[in-house]
Amino acid sequence: MSEWFDFTTKEACQPGHPIVKAINGHPIALFNLNGEYYAIEDSCPHQGLPLSDGPVLGNEIICPYHGARFCIKTGEVTAPPAYEDLPTFEVRIIEGMIQVKV
Ligand code: FES
């Protein structure tokens, strides 16, 4: 069953600086894209390495290891060598606290 978890505050999550946390065994990266917040699993489906150190280009994150690309908003893979989409997590804001449903 999914639950909402406090992740971080709005002030702490700035564009270009994802916040990473592990919740219930899921490494999760939270991104601020122009004031909208998105949470994806921080594990590249290609080799299971963390994505969050990679550069963000528009709405995409580029895996720093072999260059796969993913849409941060939808988790969709947009360039190889990964071929699977990323799990995404619902996000909500309660009184300045960003919560993620895991
Ligand atoms: S681990 Fe991400 S592209 Fe290889």
From TrEMBL:
PROSITE patterns assigned to the protein according to its UniProt record, in alphabetical order: RIESKE
UniProt keyword annotations, A-Z: 2Fe-2S, Dioxygenase, Iron, Iron-sulfur, Metal-binding, Oxidoreductase
Statement: the UniProt record of this protein carries the keyword Iron-sulfur: yes
Any one GO molecular function term: 2 iron, 2 sulfur cluster binding
Domain Rieske: 5-100
Name of this protein: Naphthalene 1,2-dioxygenase/salicylate 5-hydroxylase system, ferredoxin component
Protein species of origin: Candidatus Berkiella aquae
